[in-house]
Structure formats: C-alpha cells, structure tokens
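Kindly inspect this chain:
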Amino acid sequence: MEQTSLSYLYLALALCLATSAFFSGAETAMMAVNRYKIASKARQGHLAASRTQKLLTQTDKLLSVILIGNTLINTASATLSTLIANRLFTGNDFALGTATLLVAFAILIFSEATPKVLAANYAEQFAYTASFPLLILLRLLYPAVWLVNLFVSALIKTLRLKKNQENQHALSPEELRLLVLESGRYMEKKHHTILLNLFELASITVDDVMTPRHQIESIDLDGPTDEIRKQIVTCHHTRLPVYAVNPDNIIGILHIRKILSLREDEVDQTRLREMMRPPYFIPSSTPLFTQLQNFQENKRRMAVVVDEYGEMQGLVTLEDILEQVVGEFTSNSPAQGAKVLRQPDGSVLLDGASSLRDLNRKLRLTFPVDGPKTLNGLILEHFEDIPDAGTCLVLSGQRIEIVQTQDRSIRVIRLYAQDI
C-alpha cells in the first residue's frame, strides 16, 4: 500500500463516495417509488418495472444488500482517508482528525443527502436504473444477505416482535378516495367525478336521495275508474305506487307498460290489483351502495322508504341511485324539473324542497348534510319556527331570503351566492 500512488488513492476514494451515493439513492428510490404504477407498467411488459417489482416483493433482502454494500463502501472510504492523511501528514494527529471530519462531511453531502434528495424527486427513474445492478449484487452477496437476515430475524424474535404479515401497501377506502382526488388531472373530468361519487355511496343513505312522500305521483285505487284511466295515460313515470284509503298506505307497484297493452274498458280496479306487484319496503337508513346491491339481488327498481315506526317517508328508485354516480338524467317529470331559476341580479330562486346534497353538487355550496335533507328543513331547524316571507338569514356563509311560505313549509327561497 505504501507504493500506491496518491492519485490512485484519491481515485479510489472518489469511487467509494460515488458507489455509496448509488446505494443511498437506491434505498430512497425503492422505498419512495409508486408501487401501483410499477405494477401497472410491469403488466404492460416494461422490463425495468418488472425488475423493480421483483426487488420490492423481497424488501428485507433488498434492504440487506443495500446496507451491506453501503457499510462496506463507507468503511473503505474511512480507511482510504486515513491512508491519504498518513501519507500527507505523517505523525500529525490533528491532520488525521481533520481528515476524518472532511471524509464524514463528504459522505454526508455527496453520498447521503444529495443522492437521497434526487432519488426522492425522481424515484421511478432512479429505481429503474438501480434495479439491474441491485439484482446482480443480490445474487453475488446472497450468502451475506442470508446471514444478515438470519441474525435480524433472531433479534426480532428475542424482542418478542412479530413481522407484519398483512399487506402494508393495501389502501383503505378513504386512502383510495384521496388517491382519486389527487389523480384528477390525469383523467377526464367526468370519469374523475364518477369515481369520487362511487366512494360516497357507502356514506349516503336512501333518505338523502328519495322522493319525499308529498311529491310522489301515485294511483288511488279507491278513486273513480275514469280518473284512474286518465292518470295512467298522462303519468310521467313507468312505475307508479298504488294506495288505498290514504296515500301512505301503499299496497302495490304498477308497471304502466303492462296497462297500456289493455283496452281502455279493460282497465279497472280489479285488473289493477291483478297486475300490480307487491311493494318493496326498505328502512330510511339504508346506505345507497347496500340498496344498489339489494335492487340487484331482488330484481327490483323501486322501493318504498319507511322510518323506524313503519311510516312511509318517500320513494327511491334505481335511477335515483345511479344519478348519484353519473349525474342527473333528462327523464324527470315536470314536477321534478328545474328547481334553480337564475335571476338578472345574479341570485337564484330555489324550491324549498330542494335536496341539500343536490344544491351542494350543482352550485358548489357547503350546506351541512348530516341533519335535515332539504333546504326547507335546514331553515326550519335554524329558526325552530316557520319564518315569514321576506325574512333574511345567513347559512353556511350564504345569504338567503324567504320568498314564499305555504302549508307550514317554505316553498320559494332566494339565494344570493357570489360564485354560482
């Protein structure tokens, strides 16, 4: 070693620093890389992605080979720095100490901090580049890797710790939702909205989207036959609830298409009873996603929503649930038509029965949805009384004016929103 030229020692030290930088960057890149993107590219036949995925499936061995290589290289760097200092400053202890500090500083800057920052910012490219040499080193150093892992496993058992056998990289529903939120710029806006709406189905219940009972179009089986025939011909839905005595007593669901195949004189109460289907009752607290599955399993498209006492609250259809995912259809009846009337002064007139969720989605508002389901209900809860027309208030940062009240409810509301 005494005969080795200083230039070779300098070159060897620089090579050690560069190699240490490779191991440090490889460790950061492998841990920071997006595993799902790697898996996707690997399925498409990307060779570097396949190598990277193979390494990531054996994380303990990957970390062992990186740490073995980095430890050996850093030890060699310290040895080389000592040799260089001895050659330059023989017998000078201060110079030897200074050389050690300089090498430690060089390792910190050039072999640790800088490569790790670069690897964190360009994790995918760095991981692809490092995957090939790491696989080769894993084969060459396998006995050492096996020995290190053996001692590590023994130490973990001694400490009575257990390795987490579950997939640590599996995402929870909330984490998946956050992932979709952050991926909005990579997909079409409509697709992005649909994906986000799917995550909401488990937290929204049927009473959030149902048609309230006072808005239900239904057939009175005890009414005049001519009136029933006229209603069937002029109805706006393909399925209608049928009641007897009072509108809350639903006794069946009638498919209008079956009735239209009959002659007018064949349509009477007896024939309607024969053709209608028994009603399908569901509790108001049923999550939309669960109800969507129930519709599929029961082969139904309409359900009567009841509360905990069995009282009818409204009606929900398969289309109501699908609209929460893909947006509104254009097949609504005039009674359910446009509830947002824009005014020349920039304000909008709203129906008091408008759903808070619909308003939040259409007008990008922030009304609370964990209490009352309609705008009328929210205002009544705020006042704990029925306000007079002309009353103004502020709810969730929005200026609201009561325009018309009728039948113990608020019928028309003016909203002075700045950004709608």
In short: The mean pLDDT is 83. The two ends are 79 Å apart (CA to CA). Residues 59-88 form the longest helix (30 residues). The first strand starts at residue 211 and ends at 212.
